[in-house]
Amino acid sequence: MHEIVAAKYAEALLEEAKITGNLKECVEDLDNFCKLLKENSQFYEFLVHPEIKDDEKINIINSSLKGKTPDELIRTIILLITHDRIEDIFLVNEEFKYKYYEYIGVKFALVKTAIKLNDEEIEALRSKLKRKYNCDIEIENIVDESLIGGVYLKVSDETIDETVKGRLERIKKQLLKKDEVII
Known about the structure:
- With 183 residues, this protein is α+β, with helices and mostly antiparallel strands.
- Helices cover 60% and strands 15% of the residues.
- A hairpin with a 2-residue loop joins strand 3 and strand 4.
- Pfam families: OSCP.
């Protein structure tokens, strides 16, 4: 459900940014804003805190971003705040990148691994994906130690989860299936 909502916000931002000509800047600024939220947990907690009034949050956003970030991106962040969806900003960022790269004729591949891929591994993956999709590929490698090992790959609507965490979750589901006897 969160992905569907995030996709709608991303689509709206894409359309506005195309009209204003700020598309590339919005992609970069939203990505940087999300990185800031990940690095600064206090700021993130401030934005998602239910007891802090939206007006306070909006004032901070406006005073920090006005004149430095495209207005359509600021409006999107404010909409996420006022609709109690700011925690979805990371999904909006991901969806926005997919839509942006699709718009410019490039596929965006999100690769999550327990350890950072080196340049050779990224280029090997890019080469394989180029052959598969017959187009340029932009790869973002996100390190998520909770995956334990393996690779999670999302390209457009296709997702491949070959992580240890993903496999363990699938095994758990099988073991917990109703009316199934395990010996």
